[in-house]
């Protein structure tokens, strides 16, 4: 289990503004950035850290190919504000006042 200091360090690597240079062709609706200075591979960041599809990641970060080519020490978009809220759970309300998924 990660310590509080390790968790805080991880949070420092992402935010609503990039802390490093980024490709100017990055999607303009980016709402969360990953600052790539810790040496992880593109696939580790894309697939494991943020669970982003290759198509979405390349669309948000056009300098990165579908197979993670051109990965550099830059800031990358890891969340698009247009996708926020797309995965809202469908809740059904029962007649007795309770809710169920």
* % residues in beta strands: 15-25%
Low-confidence stretches: 1-12, 85-94
Radius of gyration computed on alpha carbons: 17 Å
| Tally of discrete structural domains | 1
Order of helices and strands: HEEHHEEE
Strand order of the largest sheet: 1-2-3
Task: Based on Cα principal axes, name the global outline.
Answer: globular
Protein name: LysM domain-containing protein
Organism: Staphylotrichum longicolle
Describe this structure in words.
- It comes from Staphylotrichum longicolle.
- This is LysM domain-containing protein.
- It is a single chain.
- This protein has one domain (4-100).
- β4 and β5 form a beta hairpin.
- Mean pLDDT is 78; it is low at 1-12 and 85-94.
- The longest helix is centred in the N-terminal third of the chain and has 9 residues, at 4-12.
- It has three helices and five strands, in the order αββααβββ.
- The chain starts with a helix and ends with a strand.
- By secondary structure, it is an alpha+beta fold.
- Strands 1-2-3 form a three-stranded antiparallel β-sheet. The protein has a two-stranded antiparallel sheet with strand order 4-5.
- It has helices at 4-12, 42-49, 54-60, and strands at 14-15, 30-35, 75-80, 92-93, 99-100.
- Helix content is 24%, strand content 18%.
Task: Detail the topology: elements first, then pairings.
Elements: H1 4-12, E1 14-15, E2 30-35, H2 42-49, H3 54-60, E3 75-80, E4 92-93, E5 99-100
Antiparallel strand pairs: 1-2, 2-3, 4-5
């Amino acid at each position: 289990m990660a310590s509080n200091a390790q968790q805080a360090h991880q949070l420092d690597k992402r935010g609503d503004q990039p802390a490093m240079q980024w490709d100017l062709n990055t999607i303009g609706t980016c709402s969360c950035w990953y600052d790539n200075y810790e040496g992880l591979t593109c696939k580790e960041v894309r697939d494991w850290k943020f669970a982003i599809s290759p198509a979405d990641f390349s669309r948000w970060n056009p300098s990165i190919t579908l197979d993670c080519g051109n990965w550099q020490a830059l800031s990358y978009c890891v969340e698009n504000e247009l996708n926020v809220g797309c995965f809202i759970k469908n809740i059904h309300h029962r007649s007795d006042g309770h809710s169920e998924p």
